[in-house]
Amino acid sequence: MTVAVLNAVLKPLIESRLPDWVDARWYATKQEAFDLAPQAEIGWFDFFRKDDMAQAIGAAGRMKWLNSVFAGVEAFPLGLLAQRGVVLTNGAGINAIPIAEYVVMLMLAYAKDYRAVMRGQDRREWLKDSPGKRELWGSRALILGYGAIGQEVEKRLVPFGVEVSKVRRSAAPGVLTPQEWRGRLGEFDWVIVAVPATAETEGLLGAAEIAALKGNAVVVNVARGSVIDQAALTAALAEGRIGGALLDVTTPEPLPAEDPLWGLANTHITMHLSGRAQELANQRAADRFIENLGRYGRGDPLDPVVDYALGY
Fold it and tell me: Which domain holds residue 185?
């Protein structure tokens, strides 16, 4: 029997679908997870605290496969996992649809200044004109990071008449490489950041890149706060050198109440909610786990597997 140590929250979605060669052992508390971890060949230890994650994983000395619903893996002890030869599958793409919907929502809300419309409703005032007149149609968007999220964003923007360019590591028709996109930043109305958080992408949009943007350009960040030089972005927004920023992520999180970003009229902050704006996260995670469990039993490659060298 293969021992799988799993979160009891997912038991109703998983237990009846487990093959007979799996011995599932469920934990309902962190301490139960720590106690069960040494038994695990397959583990699923998703905790919000990095040290709790490290403790559970550190105790799982027999583990061969670690599964996670988290797309970002910066909280995992990647060096230890690589040293032990553990295969790590993450949640890349599980939240792509709701995040892509959130991107479009933010862009439309900014373009039509929907916040001002709602404030008019709060005042019970019948507005005589639209506060926002910008259109998505005919605009140009650059997507930094053409993984699952970036691809879902493109699918939704193209029907709105947005001309989409995208950036990814590998060259392909219609795709800008990491060496090409900076020289073209001034062409875009929207810069949508959807790259993984790695040492390579930290500060990807720095002061120089922000200075190269169009005067009405809007930055949309659904990646991680660390990908953007937040001080440089804040200064550009406050001085009106760019049009705006739609930030689902910031540095740090939660953003302190005294941070100047909160008070900028051209900035929307959505508190890292985009991936949570759905009802299907657990179902999608369970379905992927069961599919990978079948692959594991057959000895087939799992998907998606984190590349420890790349950090995603």
Answer: 96-276
